[in-house]
């Protein structure tokens, strides 16, 4: 169960953190393109999905 918790945490929070690190380190001029905007929205929703999965994981 611990491995499942770690994998889901990394799968839900990892892409968001990596994306924002890349965005802050030089890709900020591209932040207004539609693809980047849509990625920000989708990656911003992943932590909420993780929160919804927590009751199922810990059951």
From TrEMBL:
PROSITE patterns: G_PROTEIN_RECEP_F1_2. One of its GO terms (cellular component) is membrane. Keywords: Membrane, Transmembrane, Transmembrane helix. It is found in: Membrane. Residues 1-58 form the G-protein coupled receptors family 1 profile domain. It holds the Pfam family 7tm_1. InterPro entries: GPCR_Rhodpsn (IPR000276), GPCR_Rhodpsn_7TM (IPR017452). The keyword Membrane applies. One of its GO terms (molecular function) is G protein-coupled receptor activity. The chain crosses the membrane at residues 36-58. Belongs to the G-protein coupled receptor 1 family. This is G-protein coupled receptors family 1 profile domain-containing protein. It comes from Portunus trituberculatus (Swimming crab).
């Amino acid at each position: 169960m611990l491995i499942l918790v770690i994998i889901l945490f990394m799968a839900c929070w990892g892409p968001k953190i990596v994306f924002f690190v890349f965005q802050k380190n030089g890709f900020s001029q591209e932040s207004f393109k539609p693809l980047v905007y849509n990625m920000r929205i989708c990656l911003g929703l992943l932590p909420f999905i993780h929160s919804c999965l927590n009751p199922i994981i810990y059951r």
